[in-house]
Protein backbone atom coordinates (compact mmCIF):
# COMPACT_ATOMS: atom_id res chain seq x y z
CA UNK A 1 0.00 0.00 0.00
CA UNK A 2 1.33 3.44 -0.95
CA UNK A 3 1.53 5.92 1.90
CA UNK A 4 0.42 9.52 1.92
CA UNK A 5 2.44 11.92 -0.22
CA UNK A 6 4.62 14.48 1.48
CA UNK A 7 6.03 14.48 4.98
CA UNK A 8 4.21 12.41 7.57
CA UNK A 9 6.53 12.81 10.56
CA UNK A 10 4.29 14.91 12.83
CA UNK A 11 0.73 13.70 13.34
CA UNK A 12 -1.99 15.54 15.25
CA UNK A 13 -5.00 13.41 16.18
CA UNK A 14 -8.13 15.23 17.31
CA UNK A 15 -9.99 13.22 19.94
CA UNK A 16 -8.84 10.45 22.28
CA UNK A 17 -11.64 8.07 21.33
CA UNK A 18 -11.01 4.40 20.60
CA UNK A 19 -10.27 5.00 16.93
CA UNK A 20 -7.94 7.90 17.59
CA UNK A 21 -6.06 6.00 20.29
CA UNK A 22 -5.70 2.91 18.09
CA UNK A 23 -4.42 5.10 15.27
CA UNK A 24 -1.94 6.77 17.65
CA UNK A 25 -0.57 3.40 18.80
CA UNK A 26 -0.06 2.13 15.25
CA UNK A 27 1.60 5.41 14.26
CA UNK A 28 3.87 5.27 17.32
CA UNK A 29 4.88 1.77 16.26
CA UNK A 30 5.86 3.23 12.88
CA UNK A 31 8.07 5.84 14.52
CA UNK A 32 5.85 8.87 14.00
CA UNK A 33 5.65 11.81 16.39
CA UNK A 34 2.04 11.83 17.57
CA UNK A 35 0.08 14.41 19.56
CA UNK A 36 -3.53 13.67 20.58
CA UNK A 37 -5.76 16.60 21.49
CA UNK A 38 -8.69 15.68 23.74
CA UNK A 39 -11.19 18.37 24.72
CA UNK A 40 -12.27 16.56 27.92
CA UNK A 41 -10.29 15.45 30.93
CA UNK A 42 -10.17 11.73 30.10
CA UNK A 43 -9.89 9.39 27.10
CA UNK A 44 -12.68 7.32 25.62
CA UNK A 45 -14.90 9.44 23.41
CA UNK A 46 -18.14 7.50 23.09
CA UNK A 47 -16.74 4.87 25.50
CA UNK A 48 -16.96 7.36 28.34
CA UNK A 49 -17.57 7.30 32.06
CA UNK A 50 -20.23 8.94 34.23
CA UNK A 51 -19.30 9.10 37.92
CA UNK A 52 -22.10 9.98 40.35
CA UNK A 53 -22.17 9.37 44.08
CA UNK A 54 -19.72 6.47 44.00
CA UNK A 55 -21.46 4.79 41.04
CA UNK A 56 -19.31 4.36 37.91
CA UNK A 57 -21.44 4.11 34.77
CA UNK A 58 -20.07 3.30 31.32
CA UNK A 59 -21.74 5.66 28.86
CA UNK A 60 -20.94 3.71 25.70
CA UNK A 61 -20.40 0.03 24.86
CA UNK A 62 -21.37 -2.37 27.62
CA UNK A 63 -18.91 -5.16 26.72
CA UNK A 64 -16.03 -6.09 24.43
CA UNK A 65 -16.31 -8.50 21.52
CA UNK A 66 -13.55 -9.77 19.21
CA UNK A 67 -10.80 -9.10 21.79
CA UNK A 68 -8.18 -10.35 19.34
CA UNK A 69 -8.48 -7.02 17.51
CA UNK A 70 -7.86 -5.17 20.76
CA UNK A 71 -4.89 -7.47 21.42
CA UNK A 72 -3.50 -6.67 17.97
CA UNK A 73 -3.60 -2.97 18.81
CA UNK A 74 -1.51 -3.44 21.94
CA UNK A 75 0.79 -5.88 20.13
CA UNK A 76 1.63 -3.19 17.54
CA UNK A 77 3.91 -1.62 20.19
CA UNK A 78 4.96 -4.91 21.76
CA UNK A 79 2.46 -4.83 24.60
CA UNK A 80 0.42 -7.75 25.97
CA UNK A 81 -3.30 -7.12 26.37
CA UNK A 82 -3.38 -9.11 29.62
CA UNK A 83 -0.86 -6.71 31.17
CA UNK A 84 -3.25 -3.81 30.66
CA UNK A 85 -6.75 -5.21 31.05
CA UNK A 86 -8.39 -7.97 33.08
CA UNK A 87 -11.07 -9.25 30.71
CA UNK A 88 -13.75 -11.33 32.40
CA UNK A 89 -15.63 -13.67 30.03
CA UNK A 90 -19.40 -13.34 30.31
CA UNK A 91 -21.23 -16.67 30.51
CA UNK A 92 -24.00 -16.32 29.59
CA UNK A 93 -23.30 -13.32 27.42
CA UNK A 94 -27.01 -12.46 27.35
CA UNK A 95 -30.13 -13.88 28.99
CA UNK A 96 -33.24 -13.43 26.88
CA UNK A 97 -36.54 -13.18 28.77
CA UNK A 98 -39.75 -13.84 26.82
CA UNK A 99 -43.35 -12.93 27.70
CA UNK A 100 -44.34 -16.59 28.13
CA UNK A 101 -41.93 -16.79 31.08
CA UNK A 102 -39.25 -18.78 29.27
CA UNK A 103 -35.61 -17.69 29.24
CA UNK A 104 -32.91 -18.52 26.72
CA UNK A 105 -29.27 -18.05 27.68
CA UNK A 106 -26.78 -17.04 25.01
CA UNK A 107 -23.72 -19.17 25.79
CA UNK A 108 -20.27 -18.51 24.28
CA UNK A 109 -19.74 -22.15 23.37
CA UNK A 110 -21.39 -23.47 20.25
CA UNK A 111 -22.23 -26.97 21.50
CA UNK A 112 -23.50 -25.74 24.88
CA UNK A 113 -25.54 -23.06 23.13
CA UNK A 114 -27.08 -25.66 20.86
CA UNK A 115 -28.04 -27.65 23.96
CA UNK A 116 -29.64 -24.54 25.46
CA UNK A 117 -31.64 -23.88 22.29
CA UNK A 118 -32.68 -27.54 22.29
CA UNK A 119 -33.82 -27.27 25.93
CA UNK A 120 -35.99 -24.23 25.24
CA UNK A 121 -37.04 -24.54 21.60
CA UNK A 122 -36.43 -28.14 20.53
CA UNK A 123 -34.03 -30.14 18.38
CA UNK A 124 -35.00 -28.57 15.06
CA UNK A 125 -34.06 -25.08 16.29
CA UNK A 126 -30.83 -26.38 17.81
CA UNK A 127 -29.73 -27.66 14.41
CA UNK A 128 -30.79 -24.34 12.89
CA UNK A 129 -28.65 -22.50 15.43
CA UNK A 130 -25.54 -24.47 14.48
CA UNK A 131 -26.11 -23.71 10.81
CA UNK A 132 -26.77 -20.04 11.51
CA UNK A 133 -23.72 -19.67 13.75
CA UNK A 134 -21.49 -21.09 11.02
CA UNK A 135 -23.06 -18.72 8.48
CA UNK A 136 -22.65 -15.66 10.72
CA UNK A 137 -19.04 -16.57 11.49
CA UNK A 138 -18.35 -16.84 7.78
CA UNK A 139 -19.82 -13.40 7.12
CA UNK A 140 -17.76 -11.81 9.88
CA UNK A 141 -14.56 -13.62 9.02
CA UNK A 142 -14.83 -12.86 5.33
CA UNK A 143 -15.74 -9.23 5.92
CA UNK A 144 -12.82 -8.74 8.27
CA UNK A 145 -10.40 -10.51 5.94
CA UNK A 146 -11.46 -8.52 2.90
CA UNK A 147 -11.29 -5.23 4.79
CA UNK A 148 -7.73 -6.11 5.81
CA UNK A 149 -6.57 -7.49 2.46
CA UNK A 150 -8.14 -4.82 0.27
CA UNK A 151 -5.99 -2.11 1.93
CA UNK A 152 -8.29 0.81 1.01
CA UNK A 153 -6.64 4.14 0.35
CA UNK A 154 -8.69 5.81 3.06
CA UNK A 155 -11.30 4.84 5.69
CA UNK A 156 -13.95 6.60 3.60
CA UNK A 157 -13.24 4.17 0.74
CA UNK A 158 -14.65 1.40 2.92
CA UNK A 159 -18.09 2.89 2.22
CA UNK A 160 -17.94 1.49 -1.30
CA UNK A 161 -20.74 -1.06 -1.72
CA UNK A 162 -18.50 -3.16 -3.98
CA UNK A 163 -16.22 -4.06 -1.07
CA UNK A 164 -19.06 -5.04 1.25
CA UNK A 165 -20.86 -6.81 -1.56
CA UNK A 166 -17.76 -8.83 -2.35
CA UNK A 167 -17.48 -9.94 1.27
CA UNK A 168 -21.11 -10.98 1.34
CA UNK A 169 -20.87 -12.91 -1.92
CA UNK A 170 -17.84 -14.76 -0.63
CA UNK A 171 -19.52 -15.47 2.71
CA UNK A 172 -22.97 -16.47 1.61
CA UNK A 173 -22.91 -17.12 -2.10
CA UNK A 174 -24.96 -13.98 -2.66
CA UNK A 175 -27.35 -12.16 -0.32
CA UNK A 176 -30.53 -10.93 -1.94
CA UNK A 177 -32.67 -10.39 1.12
CA UNK A 178 -32.39 -8.57 4.41
CA UNK A 179 -31.61 -9.75 7.91
CA UNK A 180 -35.10 -10.75 9.03
CA UNK A 181 -35.70 -12.78 5.89
CA UNK A 182 -32.32 -14.46 6.25
CA UNK A 183 -32.98 -15.40 9.88
CA UNK A 184 -36.36 -16.78 8.87
CA UNK A 185 -34.59 -19.15 6.51
CA UNK A 186 -32.93 -20.76 9.53
CA UNK A 187 -35.36 -20.49 12.46
CA UNK A 188 -39.07 -21.15 12.91
CA UNK A 189 -39.45 -20.50 16.66
CA UNK A 190 -40.36 -16.81 17.17
CA UNK A 191 -38.11 -16.62 20.22
CA UNK A 192 -35.03 -17.53 18.18
CA UNK A 193 -36.10 -15.20 15.40
CA UNK A 194 -36.38 -12.29 17.82
CA UNK A 195 -33.16 -13.09 19.64
CA UNK A 196 -31.00 -13.23 16.51
CA UNK A 197 -32.65 -10.20 14.91
CA UNK A 198 -32.60 -7.90 17.92
CA UNK A 199 -28.98 -6.81 17.43
CA UNK A 200 -29.95 -4.73 14.42
CA UNK A 201 -32.72 -3.09 16.44
CA UNK A 202 -30.26 -2.19 19.18
CA UNK A 203 -27.98 -0.82 16.46
CA UNK A 204 -30.72 1.49 15.25
CA UNK A 205 -32.30 -0.34 12.30
CA UNK A 206 -35.50 -2.40 12.35
CA UNK A 207 -34.73 -6.05 11.51
CA UNK A 208 -37.04 -6.05 8.49
CA UNK A 209 -35.11 -3.06 7.11
CA UNK A 210 -31.60 -4.23 8.00
CA UNK A 211 -29.33 -5.71 5.33
CA UNK A 212 -28.10 -9.27 5.75
CA UNK A 213 -24.65 -7.90 6.59
CA UNK A 214 -26.00 -7.53 10.13
CA UNK A 215 -25.52 -11.27 10.54
CA UNK A 216 -21.95 -10.36 11.52
CA UNK A 217 -23.34 -8.89 14.74
CA UNK A 218 -24.89 -12.14 16.01
CA UNK A 219 -21.54 -13.83 15.50
CA UNK A 220 -19.82 -11.18 17.61
CA UNK A 221 -22.41 -11.41 20.37
CA UNK A 222 -24.98 -14.26 20.41
CA UNK A 223 -22.54 -16.65 18.69
CA UNK A 224 -19.19 -15.41 19.96
CA UNK A 225 -17.35 -14.66 23.18
CA UNK A 226 -18.06 -11.45 25.07
CA UNK A 227 -15.88 -9.90 27.77
CA UNK A 228 -16.26 -7.28 30.46
CA UNK A 229 -13.12 -5.53 31.73
CA UNK A 230 -12.68 -5.08 35.46
CA UNK A 231 -13.12 -1.39 36.03
CA UNK A 232 -15.80 -1.22 33.34
CA UNK A 233 -15.55 -0.81 29.59
CA UNK A 234 -14.05 2.64 30.12
CA UNK A 235 -10.94 0.82 31.40
CA UNK A 236 -10.28 -0.06 27.75
CA UNK A 237 -9.62 3.48 26.44
CA UNK A 238 -7.75 4.24 29.66
CA UNK A 239 -5.47 1.28 28.94
CA UNK A 240 -5.03 2.26 25.28
CA UNK A 241 -4.11 5.78 26.36
CA UNK A 242 -1.60 4.41 28.86
CA UNK A 243 0.05 2.19 26.26
CA UNK A 244 0.15 5.04 23.75
CA UNK A 245 1.84 7.38 26.24
CA UNK A 246 4.33 4.68 27.25
CA UNK A 247 5.45 4.50 23.65
CA UNK A 248 5.90 8.20 23.07
CA UNK A 249 2.46 9.52 22.19
CA UNK A 250 1.64 12.88 23.77
CA UNK A 251 -1.99 13.12 24.93
CA UNK A 252 -3.12 16.59 25.90
CA UNK A 253 -6.36 16.56 27.86
CA UNK A 254 -8.65 19.57 28.27
CA UNK A 255 -7.30 20.87 24.97
CA UNK A 256 -9.92 21.55 22.31
CA UNK A 257 -9.08 22.02 18.64
CA UNK A 258 -10.68 25.11 17.14
CA UNK A 259 -9.51 25.31 13.53
CA UNK A 260 -7.15 23.94 10.91
CA UNK A 261 -4.49 26.02 9.20
CA UNK A 262 -4.11 25.02 5.54
CA UNK A 263 -1.87 26.06 2.69
CA UNK A 264 -1.71 24.85 -0.92
CA UNK A 265 -4.28 22.15 -0.31
CA UNK A 266 -2.65 20.70 2.80
CA UNK A 267 -3.22 21.09 6.51
CA UNK A 268 -0.20 22.66 8.19
CA UNK A 269 -1.28 23.08 11.80
CA UNK A 270 -4.09 22.75 14.31
CA UNK A 271 -5.05 25.79 16.37
CA UNK A 272 -6.54 25.20 19.81
CA UNK A 273 -9.33 27.14 21.46
CA UNK A 274 -6.69 28.78 23.66
CA UNK A 275 -4.87 30.07 20.57
CA UNK A 276 -1.93 27.68 20.52
CA UNK A 277 -0.62 26.60 17.10
CA UNK A 278 0.44 22.95 16.82
CA UNK A 279 2.31 22.12 13.57
CA UNK A 280 1.17 18.99 11.74
CA UNK A 281 2.21 17.05 8.65
CA UNK A 282 -1.02 15.04 8.89
CA UNK A 283 -4.25 15.63 10.81
CA UNK A 284 -6.49 12.75 11.92
CA UNK A 285 -10.02 13.56 13.06
CA UNK A 286 -13.46 12.01 13.44
CA UNK A 287 -16.04 12.79 10.72
CA UNK A 288 -18.39 14.09 13.42
CA UNK A 289 -16.25 17.23 13.19
CA UNK A 290 -16.94 19.25 10.06
CA UNK A 291 -14.48 21.78 8.69
CA UNK A 292 -15.60 24.94 6.92
CA UNK A 293 -13.13 27.74 6.20
CA UNK A 294 -10.78 26.07 8.64
CA UNK A 295 -13.19 26.10 11.59
CA UNK A 296 -13.90 22.80 13.36
CA UNK A 297 -17.37 22.19 14.73
CA UNK A 298 -19.81 19.31 15.19
CA UNK A 299 -21.12 18.24 11.79
CA UNK A 300 -24.65 19.25 10.89
CA UNK A 301 -27.23 16.46 10.43
CA UNK A 302 -27.18 14.79 7.08
CA UNK A 303 -29.49 16.36 4.55
CA UNK A 304 -30.71 15.44 1.12
CA UNK A 305 -31.33 11.75 0.89
CA UNK A 306 -30.26 11.18 4.47
CA UNK A 307 -32.93 10.55 7.07
CA UNK A 308 -32.89 10.26 10.80
CA UNK A 309 -33.34 6.70 11.96
CA UNK A 310 -33.25 5.79 15.64
CA UNK A 311 -31.54 6.75 18.83
CA UNK A 312 -32.18 5.43 22.33
CA UNK A 313 -33.21 6.23 25.86
CA UNK A 314 -30.60 5.16 28.39
CA UNK A 315 -31.43 5.09 32.11
CA UNK A 316 -28.56 4.71 34.59
CA UNK A 317 -29.75 3.44 37.97
CA UNK A 318 -27.96 3.09 41.29
CA UNK A 319 -29.96 0.64 43.38
CA UNK A 320 -30.11 -1.13 46.73
CA UNK A 321 -31.87 -4.12 45.16
CA UNK A 322 -30.24 -7.24 43.70
CA UNK A 323 -31.99 -9.79 41.49
CA UNK A 324 -30.93 -13.42 41.35
CA UNK A 325 -32.54 -14.54 38.10
CA UNK A 326 -30.85 -12.11 35.75
CA UNK A 327 -27.43 -12.13 34.07
CA UNK A 328 -24.92 -9.39 33.30
CA UNK A 329 -26.83 -8.57 30.09
CA UNK A 330 -30.55 -9.19 29.76
CA UNK A 331 -32.97 -8.80 26.88
CA UNK A 332 -36.62 -8.43 27.82
CA UNK A 333 -39.12 -8.92 25.01
CA UNK A 334 -42.71 -7.76 25.20
CA UNK A 335 -45.70 -9.51 23.71
CA UNK A 336 -45.52 -7.54 20.49
CA UNK A 337 -42.68 -7.40 17.99
CA UNK A 338 -43.63 -5.40 14.92
CA UNK A 339 -45.71 -3.00 17.01
CA UNK A 340 -42.87 -1.59 19.13
CA UNK A 341 -40.71 -1.42 16.00
CA UNK A 342 -43.44 0.60 14.29
CA UNK A 343 -43.60 2.96 17.27
CA UNK A 344 -40.02 4.03 16.55
CA UNK A 345 -39.71 3.72 12.78
CA UNK A 346 -43.17 4.75 11.59
CA UNK A 347 -44.95 6.66 14.34
CA UNK A 348 -41.81 8.38 15.70
CA UNK A 349 -42.77 7.88 19.33
CA UNK A 350 -41.27 6.04 22.34
CA UNK A 351 -41.86 2.30 22.36
CA UNK A 352 -44.87 0.90 24.13
CA UNK A 353 -44.48 -2.71 25.25
CA UNK A 354 -40.76 -2.10 24.64
CA UNK A 355 -37.84 -4.36 23.91
CA UNK A 356 -35.42 -3.62 26.77
CA UNK A 357 -31.74 -4.27 27.20
CA UNK A 358 -30.76 -4.28 30.88
CA UNK A 359 -27.12 -4.42 31.95
CA UNK A 360 -26.10 -5.22 35.53
CA UNK A 361 -22.32 -4.60 35.44
CA UNK A 362 -21.87 -4.87 39.22
CA UNK A 363 -22.78 -8.54 38.87
CA UNK A 364 -19.33 -8.94 37.29
CA UNK A 365 -17.44 -6.08 38.99
CA UNK A 366 -18.92 -5.00 42.36
CA UNK A 367 -16.27 -2.25 42.64
CA UNK A 368 -18.24 -0.10 40.19
CA UNK A 369 -20.71 0.83 42.95
CA UNK A 370 -20.65 1.54 46.69
CA UNK A 371 -20.87 -1.41 49.05
CA UNK A 372 -24.17 -3.35 48.84
CA UNK A 373 -25.29 -1.34 45.83
CA UNK A 374 -26.00 -2.37 42.24
CA UNK A 375 -25.87 -0.65 38.87
CA UNK A 376 -28.64 -1.22 36.32
CA UNK A 377 -28.56 0.36 32.88
CA UNK A 378 -31.76 0.25 30.86
CA UNK A 379 -31.57 0.87 27.13
CA UNK A 380 -34.52 1.07 24.77
CA UNK A 381 -34.54 2.18 21.11
CA UNK A 382 -36.32 5.46 20.49
CA UNK A 383 -36.82 7.82 17.54
CA UNK A 384 -34.05 10.35 17.03
CA UNK A 385 -35.09 13.94 17.61
CA UNK A 386 -33.83 16.21 14.86
CA UNK A 387 -36.09 19.21 15.47
CA UNK A 388 -36.26 21.57 18.43
CA UNK A 389 -39.92 20.86 19.25
CA UNK A 390 -39.33 17.12 19.60
CA UNK A 391 -36.23 17.71 21.70
CA UNK A 392 -38.14 20.09 23.95
CA UNK A 393 -40.67 17.38 24.79
CA UNK A 394 -37.92 15.28 26.30
CA UNK A 395 -36.61 18.22 28.30
CA UNK A 396 -40.00 19.28 29.66
CA UNK A 397 -41.01 16.14 31.50
CA UNK A 398 -41.12 13.31 28.96
CA UNK A 399 -37.71 11.99 30.02
CA UNK A 400 -38.72 11.39 33.63
CA UNK A 401 -42.19 10.11 32.72
CA UNK A 402 -40.83 7.62 30.23
CA UNK A 403 -38.07 6.49 32.60
CA UNK A 404 -40.81 5.84 35.16
CA UNK A 405 -42.75 3.81 32.59
CA UNK A 406 -39.66 1.73 31.81
CA UNK A 407 -39.09 1.02 35.51
CA UNK A 408 -42.74 0.02 35.88
CA UNK A 409 -42.43 -2.25 32.84
CA UNK A 410 -39.43 -3.97 34.37
CA UNK A 411 -41.30 -4.41 37.66
CA UNK A 412 -44.08 -6.12 35.72
CA UNK A 413 -41.49 -8.34 34.04
CA UNK A 414 -39.98 -9.55 37.30
CA UNK A 415 -37.86 -6.75 38.80
CA UNK A 416 -39.97 -6.57 41.95
CA UNK A 417 -39.94 -3.25 43.83
CA UNK A 418 -37.23 -1.83 41.55
CA UNK A 419 -38.62 1.68 41.87
CA UNK A 420 -38.60 1.60 45.68
CA UNK A 421 -34.88 0.82 45.95
CA UNK A 422 -33.35 3.41 43.64
CA UNK A 423 -30.60 5.59 45.11
CA UNK A 424 -30.13 7.65 41.96
CA UNK A 425 -31.32 7.79 38.37
CA UNK A 426 -29.76 9.56 35.41
CA UNK A 427 -31.68 9.63 32.13
CA UNK A 428 -30.13 10.21 28.70
CA UNK A 429 -32.60 10.86 25.88
CA UNK A 430 -32.43 11.31 22.09
CA UNK A 431 -32.43 15.06 22.73
CA UNK A 432 -29.28 14.67 24.83
CA UNK A 433 -27.54 12.56 22.19
CA UNK A 434 -28.29 15.21 19.57
CA UNK A 435 -27.07 18.14 21.67
CA UNK A 436 -23.53 19.57 21.66
CA UNK A 437 -21.16 17.26 23.48
CA UNK A 438 -23.07 14.16 22.41
CA UNK A 439 -23.50 12.36 19.11
CA UNK A 440 -26.58 10.84 17.51
CA UNK A 441 -26.64 7.08 17.81
CA UNK A 442 -27.62 6.42 14.27
CA UNK A 443 -28.10 8.33 11.04
CA UNK A 444 -28.73 6.43 7.86
CA UNK A 445 -28.78 7.28 4.21
CA UNK A 446 -30.74 5.61 1.46
CA UNK A 447 -27.61 3.74 0.41
CA UNK A 448 -25.93 0.73 1.97
CA UNK A 449 -25.82 0.59 5.76
CA UNK A 450 -23.60 -1.23 8.17
CA UNK A 451 -24.14 -2.41 11.74
CA UNK A 452 -23.45 -0.14 14.70
CA UNK A 453 -22.50 -1.02 18.23
CA UNK A 454 -24.88 -0.24 21.17
CA UNK A 455 -25.70 2.07 22.73
CA UNK A 456 -23.37 4.28 20.94
CA UNK A 457 -22.88 4.74 17.17
CA UNK A 458 -21.72 7.19 14.52
CA UNK A 459 -22.95 9.77 12.09
CA UNK A 460 -23.79 8.79 8.54
CA UNK A 461 -24.98 10.74 5.57
CA UNK A 462 -23.36 13.88 4.19
CA UNK A 463 -19.72 13.82 5.15
CA UNK A 464 -17.59 16.64 6.50
CA UNK A 465 -16.25 19.16 4.00
CA UNK A 466 -12.48 19.12 4.28
CA UNK A 467 -10.37 20.23 1.36
CA UNK A 468 -6.90 19.03 2.31
CA UNK A 469 -5.04 16.01 1.00
CA UNK A 470 -3.35 15.17 4.31
CA UNK A 471 -6.45 14.77 6.48
CA UNK A 472 -7.50 11.25 7.47
CA UNK A 473 -10.73 10.21 9.19
CA UNK A 474 -11.09 7.68 11.97
CA UNK A 475 -13.68 6.35 14.39
CA UNK A 476 -17.33 5.43 14.59
CA UNK A 477 -18.30 7.92 11.87
CA UNK A 478 -16.35 5.92 9.29
CA UNK A 479 -16.81 2.41 8.00
CA UNK A 480 -15.77 -0.11 9.14
CA UNK A 481 -15.87 2.00 12.31
CA UNK A 482 -19.09 0.56 13.73
CA UNK A 483 -18.85 -1.03 17.14
CA UNK A 484 -15.69 -1.49 19.17
CA UNK A 485 -13.89 -4.01 16.89
CA UNK A 486 -14.57 -1.96 13.76
CA UNK A 487 -13.56 1.32 15.40
CA UNK A 488 -10.23 -0.22 16.39
CA UNK A 489 -9.85 -1.46 12.81
CA UNK A 490 -10.53 2.04 11.53
CA UNK A 491 -7.62 3.27 13.65
CA UNK A 492 -5.29 0.72 12.08
CA UNK A 493 -6.54 1.60 8.58
CA UNK A 494 -6.06 5.32 9.22
CA UNK A 495 -2.47 4.74 10.34
CA UNK A 496 -1.82 2.55 7.29
CA UNK A 497 -3.15 5.28 5.03
CA UNK A 498 -0.49 7.58 6.45
CA UNK A 499 2.47 5.21 6.61
CA UNK A 500 1.79 2.93 3.66
CA UNK A 501 1.95 -0.14 5.89
CA UNK A 502 -0.29 -3.13 5.29
CA UNK A 503 -3.33 -2.68 7.56
From TrEMBL:
Pfam family, one: Amino_oxidase
Keyword Zinc: no
Pathway: Carotenoid biosynthesis
Region of interest: Disordered: 433-466
Top-level taxon of origin: Bacteria
Classification via InterPro entries: Amino_oxidase, Carotenoid/retinoid_OxRdtase, FAD/NAD-bd_sf
Compositionally skewed regions (Gly residues) per UniProt: 447-461
NCBIfam families xref list: crtI_fam
PANTHER family (alphabetical): PHYTOENE DESATURASE
Entry protein name: Phytoene desaturase family protein
Organism expressing this protein natively: Luedemannella flava
